Amino acid sequence: TPPLNPAVNHFQQYLRINTAHPDPDYTTAVSFLNNLATSIPNLQTRTLHLTTPNKPLLLVTLPGSNPSLPSVLLNSHLDSVPAEPSKWSHPPFSALKTPDGKIYARGAQDDKSIAIQYLEAIRNIFQQDPGFTPVRTLHICYVPDEEIGGFDGMDKFAESNQFKEMNVGFFLDEGQASTNNEYRVFYADRSPWDLVIKATGKPGHGSRMYDNSAMENLMKSVEVVSKFRENQFDLVKAGVLPNSEVISANPVYLKAGIDSGDGKFVMNVQPSEAEAGYNIRLPPTADPDLLKKRIADEWAPATRNMSYHIVEKGPLRDYKGRPLITATNDSNPWWTVFKNAVEACGGKLSKPEILASTTDARYMRVRGIPSLGFSPMKNTPILLHEHNEFLKDAVFLEGIKVYESIIKAFSSFEGATP
Ligand code: MET
Ligand SMILES: [Zn+2]
Ligand SMILES: [Zn+2]
Fold first, then answer.
1. N or C: which end of the chain has fewer CB within 10 A?
2. Is 49 annotated as a binding residue?
3. Which CATH number covers residue 279?
4. 55 and 107 fall within a common domain
5. Band of residue 4 on the pLDDT scale cut at 50, 70, 90
6. Per-residue pLDDT reduced to its tens digit, 93-135
7. HSE value, Cβ hemisphere, 13 Å, CA-based, for 160
8. CB within 8 Å of 197: residues ≥ 6 apart
9. Could you say which residues bind Zn(2+) 1 here (predicted)?
């Protein structure tokens, strides 16, 4: 058997801590990361409790010699989406490594890899150059609840005095794997809305034909939404727009029928209520008012006894009403530092993209803090939220080298920032 690589071993140990919803073990995760961080010279740590005791947030700090410069904050969320063990080829919290180096675990890509890579990169920087002196302060935060909206996590943290005192000038968050040899980088997210559409109508005998039953009205809606979805998807299929620049409206649940008490449904009554749930994602350029009007007029018209409820999960515009976008050109000095750092270690970046999903970066962009999404995983299938999520050890280790370059560059960067 090959010798254990300590960094890979730390990654596997972290993956074995089950922080999947609905019952994430944040306490064990934070204590593990805290121990790992304090094993590295020059790092200071603090644990914050911004809500309940079982939702800690870990802050790691690499102090710079010039504390008057705005700091850089790297983020990794502690939580994961649930896994269905019976559908996996290896148990999702085993972090089993196959002979070709694939490490299987929920969170391997999203986003426990970067959590460990940040720390191992700092460890390597000081091992290679014990005299390395950061000028600009760099922080890492490990936050709870990203996967359920970040309300008790990054949203709360961003409002805290501790955060204000950190004077964050630039934020680096998770990105996504790329299937080719280039790293992907994201300058905006799509914003999530949870949409519930409800229909009510007269109940009736299962044999009767009549208009405006709840089921009929809901099914008409489902068809209309499906048509909208198809039109958006056609733009993607025709290559007009990338997936992340259209509005997606995906059905996530259907609820109707009368429970007959034995886990089955009453079959000879047409129900008086029916409902459908949709996960909507809006690109930063979309007009939210236009979509709301479409929902009210076409998807859930009151004239057909329909109602709807939208939960907007986080901000869509900043305080000046501008979309939450970070500049990826020379006007943004942070972008230049980032790009040069990735290229300095031999990495190639593909054209900056909007992320199809959503991250905690929106809570920074809404405060005007430039933010990029980046997870150095290339030549890797995109498996976040899927069965059999894995990351190859060699890809993980190469990512550490990329962060060494990024962290050195940001902590040495003394230039002016807007
Ligand atoms: C509900 S906020 C978004 C959480 C998660 N990162 C997603 O994109 O689905
Ligand atoms: Zn994530
Ligand atoms: Zn996720």
1. N
2. no
3. 3.30.70.360
4. yes
5. confident
6. 999 999 999 999 999 999 999 999 999 999 999 999 999 999 9
7. 16
8. 218, 221, 225, 275, 276, 277, 278, 299, 300, 306, 307, 308
9. 77, 110, 174
Look at residue 321 and tell me if it is in a domain: no
Q: Domain range for residue 33? A: 6-185+328-412
d(CA 222, CA 274): 11
How far is CA 11 from its chain centroid?
19
Asked if residue 257 and residue 221 are part of one domain, the reply reads yes
What is the percent of the chain where pLDDT is above 90?
Answer: 98
Amino acid 286 reads A
Ligand 1, residue 81: give the atom nearest the CA: 5
CA-to-CA distance for 95 and 111, rounded, in angstroms?
14
Distances (CA, A) of 238 to 31, 230, 242: 49, 12, 10
Per-residue model confidence (pLDDT) at position 1: 57
Domain co-membership, 180 together with 32: yes
- Predicted confidence (pLDDT) at residue 244 exceeds the cutoff of 60: yes
- Alpha carbon of 75 to ligand 2 centroid (Å): 10
Give me the active site residues, please. 79, 146
Alpha-carbon separation of residue 92 from 79, 108, 352, 390 (angstroms): 14, 10, 32, 9
- Count of structural domains, the chain: 2
24 shares its domain with 170: yes
Q: What is the pLDDT of residues 140-174, one digit of tens each?
A: 999 999 999 999 999 999 999 999 999 999 999 99
Ligand 3 centre to CA of 8 (Å) is: 21
